[in-house]
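User: Just a sanity check before I run the rest of the batch. Below are the structure tokens for the first item. I only need the designed sequence back.
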């Protein structure tokens, strides 16, 4: 059983983040800052039209028998190292507490629609009257200067609008658009948001100047999608198709062996030649003009990848690993999602850590994956119950305990 660290050791130790984000997009970003040592205070609100109150992701997914329902599995995955403060902003005392928190914070993060923040008196201009050098980071669905500004945005919508829902159509020819089965838009946008927070904090450290930062999901995810899929249309006039053909071939997939599957990617001319020699096809392939060099292989990538299944099925997974690894030909055994925790590499690096939550019981956490030699990230706090730290945080601000409705 892993033990919580007793103090922050990351490079953001001493930075205070007022976190008004929720769900996955913003919460993922602020957890990364928390792992890096920032003190993250998650401000949540009572129920109403939002049901039981707090971050809606608290209530998504099954919890263990007897465990509180406000610690759902996805919430647990993106809210460690935070303290939760429950405030009803309809109450004067709660607004006073929030203003005091703003004054004591280095960074203000929110991911609700900006017009809603404005109605609450929490737009950038209002917040910086309380803390002039505040770094204010707003996670939006769409940039404020475009016609979609202010519209609701969820992962499904952003995948649809960013071209990601068309990528599988480009792969298999089926015109039916489909979503990637992952909260891809939320997580990608969260990575952009985390980067934006760090850059703005660095600017403030150098200059003393705060600023407003907008992180729009559609723009971020479209940028992410087009790294490879702009392809021939990057040039004007275009030099080829949309999408990178090596990536969108339907034959780019794990390849079957006698007893399983492997990921396989011969890359250089030498590696392709070596692989097909091992498959018993060396002389035949080297004489085929479709595969004579890198440019020819790229033009004929579908035909080339189609051959891989015929080759890999002739040996077991372990036989291929033993043959290909000494030649540095990129290869990996397939992990089903339920097998990840048994992967020998992930076990050796300790990616999965088991903790004992005082309310939810035993749970697994994926530790911060990036290693820092001088300022390591760590896990200091379990994901919090709704409003768990309200009285504690208010006392630190010199304020009386919250009303019963808030605590």
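Assistant: Here's the designed sequence for the first item:
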């Amino acid at each position: 059983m892993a033990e919580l660290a007793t103090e922050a050791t990351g490079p953001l130790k001493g930075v205070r983040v007022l976190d008004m984000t929720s769900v996955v997009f913003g919460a993922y970003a602020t957890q990364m800052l928390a792992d890096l040592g920032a003190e993250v205070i998650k401000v949540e609100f009572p129920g109403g039209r939002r049901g039981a109150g707090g971050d809606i992701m608290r209530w998504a997914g099954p919890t263990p028998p007897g465990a509180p329902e406000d610690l759902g599995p996805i919430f647990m995955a993106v809210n460690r190292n935070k303290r939760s403060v429950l405030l009803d902003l309809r109450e004067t005392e709660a607004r006073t507490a929030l203003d005091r928190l703003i004054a004591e914070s280095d960074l203000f993060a929110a991911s609700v629609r900006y017009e809603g923040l404005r109605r609450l008196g929490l737009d950038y201009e209002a917040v910086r009257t309380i803390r002039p050098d505040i770094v204010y980071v707003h996670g939006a669905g769409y940039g404020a200067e475009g016609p979609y500004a202010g519209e609701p945005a969820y992962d499904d919508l952003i995948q649809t609008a960013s071209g990601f829902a068309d990528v599988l159509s480009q792969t298999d020819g089926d015109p039916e658009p489909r979503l990637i089965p992952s909260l891809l838009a939320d997580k990608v946008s969260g990575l952009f948001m985390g980067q934006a927070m760090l850059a703005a904090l660095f600017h403030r450290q150098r200059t003393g100047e705060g600023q407003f930062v907008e992180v729009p999901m559609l723009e971020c995810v479209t940028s992410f999608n087009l790294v490879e899929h702009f392809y021939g249309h990057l040039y004007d006039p275009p030099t080829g198709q949309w999408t990178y053909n090596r990536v969108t071939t339907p034959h780019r997939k794990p390849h079957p062996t006698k007893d399983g599957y492997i990921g396989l990617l011969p890359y250089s001319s030498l590696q392709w030649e070596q692989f097909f020699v091992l498959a018993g096809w060396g002389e035949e392939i080297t004489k085929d003009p479709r595969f004579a060099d890198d440019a020819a292989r790229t033009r004929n990538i579908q035909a080339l990848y189609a051959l891989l299944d015929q080759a890999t099925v002739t040996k077991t997974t372990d036989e291929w690993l033993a043959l290909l690894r000494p030649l540095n030909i990129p290869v990996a055994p397939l992990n089903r999602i339920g097998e990840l925790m048994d992967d020998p590499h992930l076990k050796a690096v300790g990616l999965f850590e088991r903790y004992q939550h005082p309310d939810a019981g035993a749970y697994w956490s994926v530790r911060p994956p990036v290693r820092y030699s001088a300022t390591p990230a760590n896990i200091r706090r379990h994901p919090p119950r709704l409003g768990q730290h309200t009285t504690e945080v208010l006392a630190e601000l010199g304020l009386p305990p919250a009303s019963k409705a808030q605590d």
